[in-house]
Amino acid sequence: MIWKTRINQTTKTKYPVIMGAFVGLGKTDFAAPFSEAGGLGIITALNFKSPNHLKKELEKMKELTEKPFGINISVLPPQVKGGHHLTEKSKNEYLAYIEVALDEGVKIFTTSAYQATFIGKRVHEAGCYWFHKAATIKHAISAEKADADAVTIVGLEGTGFKNPLTQTTLVNITMARRLLKIPIIAAGGIGDARGFLGAIAMGAEAVCFGTAVMVCEESPAALKLKEKWINEDIFTEDYHQKIYHLKLRDTVLPSMAVGHRKKIIPIKDFIEEIMNESERILRSWGFTAEEFNTIS
Ligand SMILES: Cc1cc2nc3c(=O)[nH]c(=O)nc-3n(C[C@H](O)[C@H](O)[C@H](O)COP(=O)(O)O)c2cc1C
Description:
Layout lengths: L1 E3 L1 H6 L5 E3 L8 H9 L4 E4 L6 H14 L4 E6 L13 H16 L4 E5 L4 H9 L3 E6 L2 H9 L4 E5 L14 H11 L4 E4 L5 H10 L3 E4 L1 H4 L8 H8 L6 H8 L22 H18 L6 E3 L3
Parallel strand pairs: 1-10, 2-9, 3-4, 4-5, 5-6, 6-7, 7-8, 8-9
Helix pairs in contact: 2-3, 3-4, 4-5, 8-12
The site of flavin mononucleotide has 27 residues, from strand 9 and helix 9.
């Protein structure tokens, strides 16, 4: 089946699936198999201590795959560890990473966490695309006003930074579809084909996988951690308190998506499983076309 949404037509990927950003882990050996499998692999730029280190990584990425990939810059807000108010100096430090990526031919730039309009402007000047990630609808609307080409909204079921006003993935995506014109990428708790298709039905034009891909074979996370995550009991009060009551703070916790991941498998198998099963479900509902196209 051929998948066509505004997102995968922009990213030029076979499937409308995007890899999350991963502090410490989002490097080529993890991102290249994601791109090879038909999704958009993402290199988390600030995992490299200088723009020059990022340049070497991007060169390596191009040796590993000819498929499209993107980078992420997480602009840390002052209220989190390592974050600060933006100054001209800090903006220029972030922009130095963007320049290197532009030189290396990167076309898709994802940003997250804090104000990133200054990055979006530079990316647009260069004729490339800027996708921002938000934890609330309010911030998603701000991203659209700031001219982002797409917005990823992470629901309460997901992991990563949370805002006290974070909503569930269902509320986020259905409401954002009503309120925004730009394409939406759904994130938060998605780990199987029904979650993928559900997000598309709610109005998303791609899905971003974080936790589900973290427990794949090529993820550089320690095997022990992956085993712990796939065995996480997501139905305990302790887990519920952490994931839904903002007690995540500085601890990285698997999201509700691990409820769907019971085996450590290669990224290619994970993505194929989602896409093949999605096609099977669509067929079982009577969908007969060869192309699944959400662009109207
Ligand atoms: C280990 C780990 C590290 C992460 N690091 C970042 C990061 O540096 N920047 C960011 O924007 N999101 C980060 N995230 C969040 C993911 O990019 C993604 O938005 C989130 O995991 C989606 O929810 P899901 O886990 O339910 O799929 C991280 C997630 C995990 C699991």
